[in-house]
UniProtKB/TrEMBL annotation:
It comes from the Eukaryota. It comes from Anopheles gambiae. One of its GO terms (molecular function) is U6 snRNA binding. Residues 130-145 have a biased composition (Basic and acidic residues). Residues 124-150 are annotated as: Disordered. WD repeats lie at residues 252-300, 309-343, 344-385, 386-427, 428-470, 471-505. PROSITE patterns: WD_REPEATS_1, WD_REPEATS_2, WD_REPEATS_REGION. Residues 83-137 form the Pre-mRNA processing factor 4 (PRP4)-like domain. The keyword Repeat applies. The keyword Repeat applies. Keywords: Repeat, WD repeat. It holds the Pfam family PRP4. The gene is 1269414. GO terms for cellular component: U4/U6 x U5 tri-snRNP complex. This is AGAP002144-PA.
């Protein structure tokens, strides 16, 4: 074809069909059947409106199932289940469920009961609701389900809580006044004091190293006037030593099992007689109270047997004694009323450590479950939940400022918590092995000390959490540490059967 020749294009005529679409739909269906290949796959390009509606219904069913699962999990979180393992087993028995699976612990069993109650709903509850309660509005029923349940306490608890409230308010007022004075101080003055303190810490050296017992030492503490040191060991003996020469002054005999911790009672003079001045606890659950003029205990506290009492601490007033027990609870004892005023549950596993705030209004407990809890002693409520450690918590302490909390854990870290913000503020990767104890400086809170199974104790600054000094010299793992009230001495106790007293040069 030459270039001069022109191509002629014919325009295709558009055909318009009139009438019903029934025959057209039938033709599409027949064509779909004829064009289907042997692989069994469907040509989705030929799907009708009904097929698309069926797919939408399947998606809606899946979405409804997901929403139902989310609602069930939400309901499970709101269900309150007792921490008493016996009550959990009783509830499972009423639901015709196995009370124990192979390898299942109390915490797993409690979680399984929550899942069952959330799945069964109201029909699965062991006890039927009264008719009057079913007629309540939904809003009231929701408030009832989400409310915290309480046990009725004795009259002695009410008396103790009123006393603690009056005592702590005066202490808090004094602490806030001192904090205001520190804020008004010049920045250069405060910086100079911190530099001087850090220089003194660098000069720390062993003042005395003493063999404390024939078996490993498990705890140590210094009294208020920094003149006496108290140690305990696996030999069931507790010993009182003088400071700073570390000469033996008194041996306390009475425990029949390994002693786990000791504590000095605040506000008791060294020359007092027949007055409770010290306390100790042991692996068999016994707690004994001691005086300076007697080598035998003047009183025994029963109620923990056969569970181990790991740690104990005196209230700042000296009137109350707190004990951390391996039955997943902690207890508060009133030494004036001579009875137990509070038996507090809340941890899912053993409670290992306890510490009181300087005001005396709250206390903190750490458990083997890896969680800590802050309790208001005036109301009995848990006001803060310490969640962040990967393993058991073995040491807790309050800063003198009243709102910072330090916790040492088996995960080799020390975490700092802020009670005002109710959250963790810093994590110190402190040691190469588990942290056995942690203590704040008592007269300022400018530094804290951690002891570890890596045979060292370390001193950390309060503001920047930087390491200031490493105290090394023990041949065995460290199990306890304490700082004197005048900040002149630091004592460390070890499994090598010795304790060391560190002082400034």
């Amino acid at each position: 074809m030459s270039d001069s020749e022109q191509s002629v294009y014919a325009k295709r005529t558009k055909t318009i069909h009139y009438g019903s679409l029934e025959e057209s739909d039938r033709w599409h269906v027949d064509r779909k059947d004829n064009d289907a290949d042997g692989s069994g796959r469907t040509d989705y390009s030929q799907l009708t409106t009904a097929d698309y509606m069926a797919l939408d219904e399947d998606v809606a069913k899946e979405k409804a199932a997901l929403l139902e699962e989310f609602e069930r999990r939400k309901k499970a979180r709101l269900i309150h289940v007792s921490t008493d393992d016996g009550e959990v087993k009783s509830a499972l028995r009423k639901l015709n469920e196995p009370i124990c699976y192979f390898g299942e612990g109390p915490a797993d069993r409690r979680l399984r009961l929550k899942e069952l109650l959330s799945a069964l709903g109201e029909k699965g509850l062991p006890a039927a609701k009264p008719a009057k309660e079913e007629e309540k509005p939904k809003s009231q029923q929701k408030e009832t389900n989400e409310s915290t349940w309480y046990h009725e306490g004795p009259e002695s608890l009410r008396v103790a809580r009123f006393w603690i409230a009056n005592y702590s308010l005066a202490r808090a007022k004094k602490r806030l006044e001192e904090a205001s004075e520190k804020v008004r101080q010049h920045t250069a003055t405060k910086a100079g004091r911190m530099v001087e303190l850090q220089k003194r810490i660098q000069q720390l050296a062993p003042q005395c190293s003493q063999i404390g017992d024939t078996r490993p030492i498990t705890g140590c503490t210094i009294n208020e006037d920094s003149t006496l040191l108290l140690t305990c060991s696996l030999s069931s003996l507790c010993k009182v030593w003088s400071v700073p020469d570390c000469t033996l002054k008194q041996t306390l005999r009475g425990h029949k099992c390994n002693v786990s911790d000791v504590a000095f009672r605040p506000g008791v003079a060294n020359d007092s007689k027949s007055e409770v001045a010290m306390a100790s606890c042991s692996f068999d659950g016994s707690v004994k109270l001691w005086a300076y003029d007697n080598e035998e205990s003047i009183a025994d506290i029963s109620g923990h047997v056969p569970h181990r009492v790991a740690k104990l601490a005196f209230h700042p007033s000296g009137r109350f004694l707190g004990t951390a027990c391996y039955d997943a609870s902690w207890r508060l004892w009133d030494l004036e009323q001579k009875q137990e005023v509070l038996h507090q549950e809340g941890h899912t596993k053993a409670v290992h450590c306890i510490a009181f705030q300087v005001d005396g209004s709250v206390c903190v407990t750490g458990g083997v479950d890896g969680f800590g809890r802050v309790w208001d002693l005036r109301t009995g409520r848990c006001i803060m939940f310490l969640e962040g450690h990967l393993s058991a918590i073995y040491g807790v302490d309050f800063s003198p400022n009243g709102y910072h909390i330090a916790s040492g854990s088996q995960d080799n870290s020390c975490k700092i918590w802020d009670l005002r913000r109710r959250q963790m503020v810093y994590t110190i990767p402190a040691h190469l092995n588990l942290i056995s104890d942690v203590k704040y400086q008592k007269n300022g809170g400018n530094f804290l000390v951690t002891s570890s199974y890596d045979k060292t104790a370390k001193i950390w600054s309060d503001k920047t959490w930087q390491p200031l000094k490493t105290l090394s010299g023990h041949d065995g793992r460290l199990v306890g540490v304490d700082i004197s009230h005048d900040s002149q001495y630091i004592v460390t106790a070890s499994y090598d059967r010795t304790f060391k007293l560190w002082a400034w040069d």
